[in-house]
Design brief:
heterodimer; A: mainly alpha; Arp2/3 complex 21 kDa subunit ARPC3; two-stranded antiparallel ribbon; 4 strands; B: mainly alpha; 10 helices; 2 strands; about 5% strand; flat; ECF_CbiQ (chain B); transmembrane (chain B)
Chain lengths: ~350, ~250
């Protein structure tokens, strides 16, 4: 899915770049809160981990294999801010060092694969964790769903950007069905791998999983054959997430609606157009894909009547993306000018729309 | 591999391009790509001139053409996508080699191919003439937030370490008779990924402690500030300025 130069026109790329820069700036602040002064080494190492794990091949069948994209995994393991930061750094380095993804499309790539994936996955994960019973298994299930939705959501976000600023007029319905259809399949693999990985980490070091904080059972001591609560330090509440709860609920609903439609599309039209273009593109992988995809094999979209529907869907995603951006702006404003209530209020009403 | 000092694309050398300060090169490449992207697709000759400019820069940098061309292969997935465009884009149809293809689709494919290829070529040229360390310094000089540069530098430094760790885990798995054949083996691979994450994270904690014990307070001291003279800026600007001239001609002609 690394978008090259010339795929999205210059103005939209520029806007995407500005928005992505804003998102990265917000994440830098947030990551400092998530990791305090350990940010640089830890986020760096997690980015290196994401970079490495993208090369880990998961065989599907008969010589084909998939690999992790990592957005959802990063969000769940280290938190949304650090997650966005890590993925963005990976994308930046891939763009500069490996010429993977265009330099002018860097904003598009970060927004698409870094921000949308991570934010959607984390919002969905937190929402599900809040609803499900607090067990290990529900953590795994929540990460499955989060990763499953995050990949088509990124595809939909890309479609939206392509709709606004694509350099070629492919009917947007076609792009949407192709992108989202293929990405639901990719998302299934991503979801399975993410859930397995999160499950493995929770089994060994649950304290490292950012999304599972608060899952730890209180320490019990067996005194005279009876289980007694061990004396603990006063539990520290996590106020950081409180104010955004309503926002996350909205995001959750959006994502759920999206998921419903998306799966419908997936079963309707699993065609192979975008599969090729969405390869993550480390050159070894390219060979794999060239072998496994027959791009011309099955392409026949019969969805003329779907164009309106998918347009509406794109709108829904647009709302979601706006929400994300708006919340970022709200965040900055509320931190910057705590005294002045008006700008914050204005941003909040924007979000509600 | 490169033991953390070089990356796969870097080619050691002492050409005028190698010696340019990294931030000049970064700015020049970025400006060049922006100019290329804003060129109208109908000005086919302009893209030929751009290719000549890149080839000229590669010649000055003494990067062999074969090396550059081989690195362009990273684009292959999008080439496949571009080749589909003439068949899926609606519009005026025309005959090419007996196939009915659409004219806007052909233009779209040409647009993506030409601009994408030039962009990749420019990035490859940058990466093959700039060392990692100086690339990061250049990014810092270009006012990228220092924290982001630090994260990037840690990722680059430990990328090889983590990848090697993954490779060792893979060897350990295989030496115990594991063979990844299909979905049924995903459980083991997922556990490996989880273990890799824990190892990376704990390594990060150790690295942080080691840094703190050496006086780290949240920012890295800059010991080798890169500076650029006006002549160097002018030299680096040659590529994008020439490209800009071509672009302006492309808009007017």
């Amino acid at each position: 899915m690394h978008v090259p130069d010339g795929f999205i026109n210059a103005p939209v790329s520029a806007v995407a770049g500005v928005v992505a820069a804003g998102a990265v700036a917000v994440s830098l602040k947030g990551a400092r809160r998530e990791l305090n002064e350990r940010t640089a080494p830890l986020a760096g190492l997690v980015a290196a981990f994401i970079f490495a794990v993208q090369m880990l091949n998961f065989p599907v069948a008969a010589g084909t294999s998939g690999h992790l994209l990592g957005g959802a995994l990063a969000a769940i393991l280290v938190g949304p801010y650090t997650g966005v930061l890590c993925i963005s750094v990976v994308l930046l380095m891939q763009g500069i060092l490996f010429a993977d993804g265009g330099l002018t499309a860097l904003g598009v790539n970060i927004l698409d694969m870094g921000v949308v994936t991570t934010v959607v996955a984390y919002a969905l994960f937190r929402g599900l964790v809040g609803v499900l019973p607090r067990t290990r298994r529900s953590m795994t299930a929540a990460s499955f769903v989060a990763a499953l939705v995050s990949v088509p959501a990124a595809a939909a976000a890309f479609t939206l950007m392509y709709w606004i600023g694509g350099t070629t007029d492919i009917p947007i319905g076609k792009v949407f069905t192709a992108m989202v259809g293929v990405h639901v399949l990719i998302g299934l693999g991503e979801a399975a791998i993410t859930a397995l990985t999160v499950g493995a980490v929770i089994a060994v070091r649950p304290d490292l999983v950012h999304g599972a904080r608060g899952l730890t059972a209180p320490l019990k001591l067996r005194i005279d054959g009876e289980l007694v609560d061990a004396p603990t330090a006063a539990p520290t509440p996590a106020p950081a997430h409180r104010p955004t709860k309503g926002l996350w609920a909205t995001g959750l609903v959006t994502a759920l609606v999206l998921a419903g439609f998306v799966s419908f599309y997936a079963s309707a039209n699993p065609d192979g157009l975008e599969k090729v273009a969405t390869d993550q593109g480390i050159d070894k992988e390219a060979k794999d894909h060239a072998a496994k995809d027959s791009p011309l094999a099955d392409y026949g979209v019969k969805d003329v009547s779907d164009a309106r529907l998918s347009g509406g869907l794109a709108g829904i995603i647009g709302v979601g993306a706006t929400l994300v951006v708006g919340s970022g702006a709200f965040y900055v404003v509320s931190r910057r000018r705590r005294a002045g209530e008006e700008p914050a209020a204005a941003t909040r009403t924007d979000e509600k729309v | 591999m490169g033991a953390g000092h070089a990356h796969k694309l870097y080619r050691h050398g002492h050409s005028p391009v190698h010696d340019l300060p990294p931030h000049c090169k970064l700015a020049a490449v970025f400006a060049f790509v922006v100019v290329v992207v804003t060129t109208p697709r109908e000005a086919v000759w302009a893209f030929g001139l751009y290719a000549l400019l890149i080839a000229g820069a590669a010649a000055v940098a003494r990067v062999p053409a074969g090396f550059l061309l081989k690195r362009l292969l990273i684009e292959v997935p999008f080439v496949a996508f571009a080749l589909l465009m003439p068949f899926v884009v609606p519009g005026e149809q025309t005959q090419v080699l007996g196939l009915s293809v659409s004219v806007p689709g052909l233009w779209g494919a040409w647009n993506v191919l030409a601009k994408g290829t030039l962009g990749v070529a420019a990035s490859v040229l940058l990466a093959s003439t700039t060392e990692l360390r100086s690339l990061l310094l250049g990014l810092q000089r270009l006012r990228l937030p220092p924290l982001l540069v630090q994260i990037a530098s840690f990722m680059i430094r430990y990328g090889d370490v983590i990848t090697d760790e993954m490779r060792r885990m893979s060897i350990a798995r295989r030496s115990r008779g594991f063979e990844a054949r299909g979905i049924r083996q995903w459980g083991v691979l997922g556990k490996s990924a989880g273990a890799l994450f824990i190892r990376s994270y704990e390594r990060g904690e150790r690295v942080h402690l080691a840094m703190v014990s050496r006086g780290y307070t949240g920012s890295m001291p800059v010991i080798d500030e890169v500076t650029a003279s006006r002549a160097q800026w002018a030299y680096a600007a040659a590529l994008p300025v020439l490209a800009l001239v071509v672009c302006l001609l492309g808009w007017t002609v």
